[in-house]
Specification:
Chain lengths: 323, 441
């Protein structure tokens, strides 16, 4: 019996199989259906945008880490996910340099400046998107209806090729043209919108996968979606339309659940979700933009440290001290 | 049916199948036993024998010292060949009595059954018996049992709970004991109820041991004792969790279970108490589980206290391949050891041998704030923040966030995807805080 290689270490001596890397790549896998859907509806343009965005994210991560002499973390999957998420929020008509710049900004300013993975305050993909919207508002709001959508939307869409379903609703398009709301087509993703935001079906497939494997906590998406549904119903709007149009599903399941930038306590997560829902509904109703998911989540990211501090759970057996 | 349990915690692969159906075998007594004077929490025992003395089986060879301590008995008959520092599981050298076995197994004259009626015994009498038997908590903590029953009159005890949860993966020694010796366990509990002045006993068992639940259900017929099946979840066997599961009582932080009228003992401790009363045998042997994928023949064994690890491992066919890690106790809270000349002690519940493949050396990385540790901690701590504070030596903040309430169950470190050594950091920080407090007081 040789004892030369026997490891002496502190307990526990077993670990769950789920490591950081596995988690990140599982998130990437969960986004695959949405990526495939974007390919189906917007053809090869989608693939080019996604490819450039992911490549730029990985490259920027590597360059930043080389410059700052930090260990290379390109393979941990987190930059990949950021690049992919950002691409899915872009309109299909953007020129190639938009995803390249957006992802570079997302990684460099949204993540590495803060100290890399685990240290950033804001969701990097959303920082990238916000940067693009502020810098090139026109490019970021030029839409294109999928060719396949002409079958149900008819020729009227020619006139409105520059708007999303949410935008059209805000303008009163559907009611003015006595067009019934295309729920099912919206659910499939056969409408105008950002690459990966349109297909609720594809997104939900991925979301179920993440929920089943307990990669994400159900509290945030439930609170988020629930709040939007309740508020839009109270305001006499169409809740189902709000759910399916725009980036709500992508945001609620994939952005508002980002570990680093959301609270760790269950209480904090519920408040976070409600806050996102409240802001999204308010921006959509009263704001200057038809969409509000991106800014809602960024605003809630900003108060995440506060939420964590306010929702420290009572310890088991903790007794309130007098005074 | 909703099974009783506690909040949070983690689900673990049990790995109990290696040994759960293997009857307890008796390990032939070894050539030598090494009995450290410190087998328990508290002051080391004081030797009553000298080198060269002949001792008989069960003879008291060291006496309890001070308030918290327990005596020690010869686990083989033979000659004292050394009283000297020997390797101890704590990593240091600790004085131990070494006996050369003469293989007669001749019992000391003071070994005789006590004719004690559990329902009539006096509390003082039982406490004396617990002390004379050398009883300590056999679930791992090794706290002297008679001290636990030294109760102040203003803290009446309602319940005595026997811990048969055995929530650590791989271990099956308590399980086998419950299946094979249910009557003795129940007898021990009846005596404990009497000693505590408690009206009701609970035996808490995880539902994944239906044979143990059935055996004890039969054995408790006619006594004020209830067998409580609980969910198989870690750390169900943690003292505060088991109290909550059985009685819904919450022990305040910093207090002992007696504060809510409860005492918890391990099933093996109750068995050892019954052994002493009914057969006169003090605590000279115990049941352990020898298991893991790195051992050739996993077994449940009755071994003499003081048997060296190598003797036990040899009996179990030795290592299968190269051992990666040798753990005394379970994989969540046990201690990793590299020497094989360590003795089995009163609190040793098992030897787990992991293979090299089971001991990957993963480097810890940054916290990704996934919150999995928060969802795991049964004490409702925030291990992610505690980990950051400990890492940066912000001891005040760690204390404010309750690091002293961490019971080192290992759940948070188990689930952490960044492989952060959370439990270890908390243990170190607790030690620092306690050392600093000692200095100032
Ligand atoms: S080791 Fe401590 S902090 Fe971690 S889960 Fe257990 S009690 Fe909580
Ligand atoms: S489990 Fe690990 S990575 Fe996740 S929040 Fe806790 S410490 Fe951070």
């Amino acid at each position: 019996m040789s004892d030369s290689k026997i490891l002496v270490s502190a307990p526990p001596h077993i670990q769950s199989e789920l490591g950081t890397k596995n988690i990140m790549w599982m998130v990437a896998a969960a986004l695959t259906p949405a990526a495939v859907a974007s390919l189906l509806f917007f053809s090869w343009r989608a693939l080019v945008i996604i490819g450039i965005s992911v490549f730029s994210a990985l490259l920027t991560e590597a360059l930043c880490e080389l410059m700052m002499k930090r260990p290379l973390t390109v393979s941990d999957g987190s930059a990949f996910v950021t690049g992919l998420l950002l691409a899915l929020t872009l309109p299909p008509t953007v020129p190639w340099w938009i995803p390249a710049l957006g992802s570079a900004f997302a990684i460099a300013v949204g993540k590495q400046v803060f100290g890399g993975l685990g240290h950033n305050l804001f969701n990097p993909a959303l920082i990238g998107r916000a940067f693009l919207v502020l810098s090139w508002p026109l490019l970021m709001t030029t839409w294109q209806w999928p060719t396949s959508s002409l079958s149900w939307a008819g020729t009227q869409m020619d006139a409105v090729s520059g708007a999303t379903a949410l935008g059209l609703l805000k303008e009163g398009f559907f009611s003015n043209n006595s067009l019934s709301l295309p729920y099912l087509q919206m659910f499939y993703g056969n409408i105008s919108g950002s690459l990966g935001e349109t297909s609720g079906l594809a997104l939900l497939l991925g979301a179920v996968f993440l929920l089943v494997y307990k990669i994400i906590d159900w509290r945030i998406p439930l609170a988020y979606l629930g709040t939007v549904l309740v508020l839009t119903t109270l305001w006499g709007q169409d809740p189902l339309f709000h759910l399916l149009a725009g980036g709500l599903i992508l945001g609620a399941f994939f952005m508002a659940t980002d570990y680093v930038t959301t609270p760790v306590t269950s209480g904090g997560r519920v408040i976070f979700g409600i806050g996102c829902g409240l802001l999204t509904a308010l921006i959509r109703r009263f704001g200057g933009y038809p969409e509000g998911v991106c800014y809602s989540i960024l605003i809630m990211n900003a108060i995440t440290p506060l939420l964590d501090r306010l929702t420290v759970p009572k310890r088991f057996g903790e007794v309130k001290k007098d005074g | 049916m909703f099974l009783k349990t506690f909040r949070k915690g983690i689900h673990l692969p049990g790995h109990k199948g290696l040994t759960s159906s293997l009857p307890i075998e008796i390990l032939p007594s070894p050539q030598q036993v090494v009995l450290p004077l410190s087998q328990h929490i508290g002051a080391p025992a004081e030797p009553l024998v000298s080198v060269g003395d002949q001792v008989l089986l069960g003879q008291k060879i060291a006496e309890a010292q001070g308030m918290v301590s327990a005596p020690l008995h010869a686990s083989v008959a033979g000659k004292i060949i050394a009283i000297e520092p020997r390797p101890h599981v704590c990593g240091k050298m600790v004085t131990a009595i070494v006996i050369e076995n003469n293989r007669t197994d001749e019992w000391a004259p003071e070994i005789f059954p006590r004719h004690l009626d559990p329902e009539r015994a006096e509390s003082d009498e039982v406490r004396e018996i617990m002390k004379e038997a050398g009883l300590v908590g056999m679930g791992g903590a090794a706290f002297p049992t008679h001290v636990k029953y030294n109760l102040s009159p203003d803290q009446p005890i309602d319940y005595v709970i026997l811990n048969g949860a055995e929530c650590e993966p791989f271990l099956t020694c308590d399980h086998r004991l419950m299946v094979e010796k249910p009557d003795r366990i129940v007898f021990g509990l009846r005596v404990m109820l009497r000693a505590a002045g408690a009206s009701k006993g609970y035996i808490v068992i995880e539902e994944n041991k239906p044979d143990a639940i059935a055996a004890l259900n039969r054995a408790v017929q006619g006594y004020p004792i209830e067998v409580v099946p609980v969910k198989a979840k870690y750390p169900q066997g943690e003292e505060r969790m088991i109290i909550y599961a059985a009685t819904r009582r919450v022990v305040p932080v910093g207090a002992l279970p007696a504060a809510v009228g409860v005492i918890v003992n391990n099933v093996a401790t109750a068995f050892a108490l019954a052994e002493f009363i009914q057969s006169g045998r003090p605590l000279i042997s115990r049941i352990i589980t020898v298991t893991g994928n790195g051992i050739n023949q996993p077994k449940n064994l009755e071994v003499r206290i003081g048997t060296l690890l190598e003797d036990v491992l040899n009996y179990c066919g030795g290592f299968k391949g190269n051992p990666g890690r040798i753990i005394l106790g379970g994989p969540l809270t046990g201690s990793a050891q590299y020497r094989l000349d360590l003795p089995i002690m009163k609190g040793t519940s098992g030897i787990l041998v992991q293979t090299e493949a089971e001991t990957p050396k993963t480097a810890p990385s940054v916290c990704i704030r996934c919150g999995k540790c928060v969802d795991a901690c049964p004490f409702n701590l925030l291990p992610n923040f505690l980990g950051l504070y400990c890492e940066h030596d912000q001891i005040d903040k760690a204390e404010a966030y309750g690091v002293l309430d961490c019971r080192e169950c290992g759940s948070c470190a188990y689930v952490c995807p960044a492989r952060r050594p959370l439990t270890q950091m908390f243990k170190n920080t607790k030690n620092k805080i306690i050392a600093a407090k000692r200095k100032t007081s």
